[in-house]
Amino acid sequence: MPTSMPTPPPSADGLGVPAMARRTVALLNALAQEAGSEHPPSPSAVAEVLREHGEPGPVELSAHDVEEMSAAAVSLREVFTADDVDLAASRLNRLLARSTGRLRLTSHAGTTPWHPHLDSADDAPWGEWFLASSCLALAVLIWDGRRPPGGHCASPGCPHVYLAHGSGPTTRRYCSRRCATRERVAAHRRARARR
Ligand SMILES: [Zn+2]
Fold first, then answer.
1. Which CATH number characterizes residue 37's domain?
2. Is the pLDDT of residue 95 over 70?
């Protein structure tokens, strides 16, 4: 018997669910407004994230597409700020009820294996596609992991989210080593100042 884990079958857009979830997080973080920043990310920056996560190029995004994706990101972020799986599931259910279409299968006219989509059509606008594909991935993560799909960075002012890793409850608090280090240094300074 093989000892390695079986490779998961290709899922939406030929990606497996973990890759879809990583794409969701990368887009959420690219679309997140840093505290104090007034400018949304440029369409080319968002297109680059899509290409990095397997979207076949060239990817043409308009400023309006980025606006709609940013609106979707605000809703999706609520699933990551839920502290327990019940709240994450109920927030995701609200999005599934209000904002996505019915589950359907597509092969993108024979160019990919059949896989599920929740958007209304293969040529749906980017904002609709982003929300629907993210909801699908997050639903599977909650189903499979029996815990919130991820969390939000505990560093004040950092708008980034992250995925839960490994099995069991996640103990992760920061989006990156950079945020973890910054907070450790700040805590150290506060402790010294109290002495
Ligand atoms: Zn952070």
1. 1.10.3300.10
2. yes
